[in-house]
């Protein structure tokens, strides 16, 4: 099977959101690397800046008005190898956790909203704060998936603060401390040469926290993203909207009309006992879903 066919297969699956996000980042990175190499070999390396400008988020408002799509494209754009490597590793580790517990659609929503909010905070800070105005005048851009990935890290930490990762040379660390360290690094970056990145990370972290808190209260902030994604999917595939008609039938019993059954307190107590004995990782997918439903009561 060819590489192109593998890519098509990856995007044709509906339950493959994490791999699709990873793949989009890799494809954009490879495209820019190839373009840069071709321009350098042909002696037109000076034009690479014009190409890159179509992907990165500008801090000055006139450029942003001319390139409005960059409010999202920047979150899939990397130049340095280690920049994309660390972002994709974090996306894979924490994204797998969010996907397992909340599903593919909410993982994508968290990534997209984290990127949008991070970019918005970046633009506002550079244009409203006097200390950062010189960066906006100079046209300092923002690129990288860090804000979107930080939203996923914070979302995972808000959802499962006691979940433990085993880090190389460190050992087991609870995810809430990983998130706190990520925020600390972002704050340090603000006055250590990368104010745009640090501010965008904090914006993404704030979104990740509120996304999960609102979800636990029964409000899904990602529904607009999902609606746009469904519309784009229908546009690309050419599939029409499905219309469902209902035939008259006897009324359902009242117990069925109340929606999915919420777990009883006895079930939750058993799940919590299991966590205290064996840790959160020992729970099955069904037990995790029951625990989440209980948090919405």
From TrEMBL:
<keyword id="KW-0812">Transmembrane</keyword>
<feature type="transmembrane region" description="Helical">
    <location>
        <begin position="167"/>
        <end position="190"/>
    </location>
</feature>
<feature type="transmembrane region" description="Helical">
    <location>
        <begin position="135"/>
        <end position="160"/>
    </location>
</feature>
<feature type="domain" description="Peptidase S54 rhomboid">
    <location>
        <begin position="67"/>
        <end position="212"/>
    </location>
</feature>
<protein>
    <submittedName>
        <fullName>Rhomboid family intramembrane serine protease</fullName>
    </submittedName>
</protein>
<feature type="transmembrane region" description="Helical">
    <location>
        <begin position="196"/>
        <end position="212"/>
    </location>
</feature>
<dbReference type="InterPro" id="IPR046483">
    <property type="entry name" value="DUF6576"/>
</dbReference>
<keyword id="KW-1133">Transmembrane helix</keyword>
<keyword id="KW-0472">Membrane</keyword>
<dbReference type="InterPro" id="IPR022764">
    <property type="entry name" value="Peptidase_S54_rhomboid_dom"/>
</dbReference>
<feature type="transmembrane region" description="Helical">
    <location>
        <begin position="21"/>
        <end position="41"/>
    </location>
</feature>
<dbReference type="Pfam" id="PF20216">
    <property type="entry name" value="DUF6576"/>
</dbReference>
<feature type="transmembrane region" description="Helical">
    <location>
        <begin position="110"/>
        <end position="129"/>
    </location>
</feature>
<comment type="similarity">
    <text>Belongs to the peptidase S54 family.</text>
</comment>
<dbReference type="InterPro" id="IPR050925">
    <property type="entry name" value="Rhomboid_protease_S54"/>
</dbReference>
<keyword id="KW-0645">Protease</keyword>
<feature type="domain" description="DUF6576">
    <location>
        <begin position="261"/>
        <end position="296"/>
    </location>
</feature>
<dbReference type="InterPro" id="IPR035952">
    <property type="entry name" value="Rhomboid-like_sf"/>
</dbReference>
<dbReference type="GO" id="GO:0006508">
    <property type="term" value="P:proteolysis"/>
</dbReference>
<feature type="transmembrane region" description="Helical">
    <location>
        <begin position="80"/>
        <end position="98"/>
    </location>
</feature>
<dbReference type="GO" id="GO:0008233">
    <property type="term" value="F:peptidase activity"/>
</dbReference>
<dbReference type="Pfam" id="PF01694">
    <property type="entry name" value="Rhomboid"/>
</dbReference>
<feature type="region of interest" description="Disordered">
    <location>
        <begin position="242"/>
        <end position="266"/>
    </location>
</feature>
<keyword id="KW-0378">Hydrolase</keyword>
